[in-house]
Write a structure and sequence with these properties.
The chain has 260 residues and is mostly helical. The chain has 15 helices and no strands. Helix 4 packs parallel to helix 6 and helix 14 packs antiparallel against helix 15. 36% of the residues are buried.
């Protein structure tokens, strides 16, 4: 696929590459890591990156994590393209590729983190989501935590950004286990978003609340009797939308202090 048979026409080659990109775009990290058994040559990646084809360049970025034994090259290549590319697909591809390259992630600098955090509040949706997902895989850091919390605050105010809210919630859940301050902030947001009895808000408000409950489901060893009581009422109310009822009862169990 990387070489793309020379007998193919340009249109045929780009069609094949586009199909591969579609598969890589929906692949999760485990699938990418399984595919990483393939060995790719750095010179081939460099050639594709310098080609005039936008599709070929994106394909090269998404295959870069498959380079073996050269984390410095992977880190340098992906960060350089994240910083310099004017194309949103290339920027999001670089961040997706970084998620699939743990050794390259370990080489991120403070300046790299600044760039990634800035992307999480950018103007283009695919870049914001890629940045939020990447922040979920990065080491615990106050700037990372604050950026994810801000992403939740921004998404909860705007219709059509439910996917960002959900990804930010998943990312925060990965960081919250060892960060009491972050867990406290999330619980405060749950209190703010708690539906009023008999009135469950707009679809956006319901989606936001469910995403926050998803975060709290990952907590352990933290108890809040007031929130637990409110969630139990929601779970027992037949008028409560099904998604909120289900998550409310799960989180009630998390936040209720064991007895006996």
């Amino acid at each position: 696929v990387l070489c793309c048979d020379n007998e193919l026409t340009k249109a045929g080659r780009e069609s094949l590459q586009e199909r591969v990109l579609m598969k890589l775009n929906v692949a999760d990290r485990d699938e990418i890591e399984e595919a990483a058994e393939i060995t790719i040559d750095t010179k081939q990646i460099e050639r594709m990156l310098s080609s005039g084809s936008l599709i070929e360049k994106e394909l090269a970025l998404r295959y870069t994590p498959m380079i073996k034994g050269n984390s410095e090259f992977v880190h340098r290549t992906l960060i350089a393209n994240l910083r310099s590319s004017p194309h949103s697909r290339h920027q999001s591809a670089a961040m997706d590729a970084l998620r699939a390259a743990p050794r390259a992630l370990a080489l991120l600098t403070i300046a790299d983190t600044d760039v990634i955090c800035a992307k999480a509040s950018g103007s283009e949706r695919n870049i914001r989501i890629a940045a939020i997902k990447l922040l979920g895989e990065m080491p615990d850091d106050e700037q990372v935590h604050l950026t994810l919390l801000q992403a939740i605050q921004d998404a909860r105010k705007t219709q059509g950004r439910e996917a960002e809210m959900f990804e930010a919630a998943k990312a925060i859940s990965k960081h919250s286990k060892g960060t009491p301050r972050l867990r406290s902030t999330v619980l405060e947001l749950v209190k703010q978003e708690m539906p009023v009895p008999g009135s469950f808000g707009s679809n956006l408000e319901q989606s936001n609340f469910t995403s926050l409950l998803h975060v709290v489901e990952s907590f352990s060893g933290i108890y809040d009797a007031n929130i637990a009581s409110s969630l139990l009422r929601l779970g027992e109310d037949y008028r409560t939308p099904e998604a909120i009822r289900r998550h409310s009862l799960r989180v009630f169990g998390r936040l209720s202090e064991p007895t006996g």
